[in-house]
Design a protein that fits this description.
alpha+beta; 227 residues; RNA Polymerase Alpha Subunit, Chain A, domain 2; 6-stranded mixed beta barrel; 37% strand; 3-stranded mixed sheet; elongated
Length: 227
């Protein structure tokens, strides 16, 4: 994965009013931190940040942050966004070691066409949209592909079916389901209604049996009283 160079200005003033002025001027308040690095308050151009995080790598992009002539290899780890507009209001850049593993969330992309599932009017249900992986920063894949071509009703594609690139591992349970073939929604609804109907009939039968038992007991009590 290629590095994206991003210029940062150090020495930004602290405080919410100063942060608002920065954002008004098209810059985003940020902080650089990591092992052996004291937190450095910086700011970056909003447009450049958007460009850096809009590549295929997304938030997993490796950013070469230039601060006062120093170079820090970083990743954008925590983005704060405006609650309405969704624009970035603050970002944390974590310094990473190119030779050490980092943890990242990688998007899962389904490929292929589940023809047998479609012919049976089945429903494709994706249950996992990203996978937590570990690798060196440069080895983080842009996305992970999962082939669903052989998916049929009642079958599933699991984490163990994902072909991880070299030097990439995951600690997620290999039996975790990524995508599953479900029966047609109408059939599933009918089966659910049928089960509810059977349960209701069972309850009704139990109630009638209980009522009959109570009636017998009342009858026995009245007979005993008359004698």
């Amino acid at each position: 994965m290629a590095e994206f160079i991003l210029e940062a200005e150090a020495g930004r003033p602290s405080g919410s009013s100063s942060a608002r002025r920065l954002r008004h001027d098209g810059r985003i308040p940020a902080v650089v931190y990591g092992p052996g690095v004291d937190p450095i308050p910086v700011s970056v151009a909003a447009r450049e940040l958007r460009a850096a995080l809009s590549t295929d790598a997304g938030l997993n992009a490796v950013l070469s942050l230039q601060v006062d002539g120093k170079k820090f290899l970083t990743m954008a780890r925590e983005l704060q966004r405006h609650p309405v507009r969704g624009s970035v209001t603050h970002v944390d850049f974590q310094v990473v070691d190119p030779n050490r593993e980092v943890t990242a969330e990688v998007t899962i992309t389904l490929i292929g066409e589940a023809l047998e599932l479609h012919r049976a009017d089945g429903v494709l249900e994706q249950q996992m949209f990203s996978l937590t992986i570990k690798s060196r920063p440069a080895d983080i894949p842009a996305h992970l592909e999962v082939d669903i071509s052989d998916l049929v009703i009642g079958a599933a594609v699991r984490v163990s079916d994902i072909a991880l690139p070299a030097n990439v591992i995951t600690e997620v349970d290999p039996e975790s389901i990524v995508a599953a073939g479900q029966p047609p929604r109408v059939q599933a609804a009918e089966e659910g209604e049928g089960a509810e109907g059977e349960a209701a009939e069972g309850e009704a039968a139990a109630g009638e049996a209980g009522g009959a038992g109570d009636a017998s007991a009342d009858a026995g009590g009245e007979s005993g009283g008359e004698s």
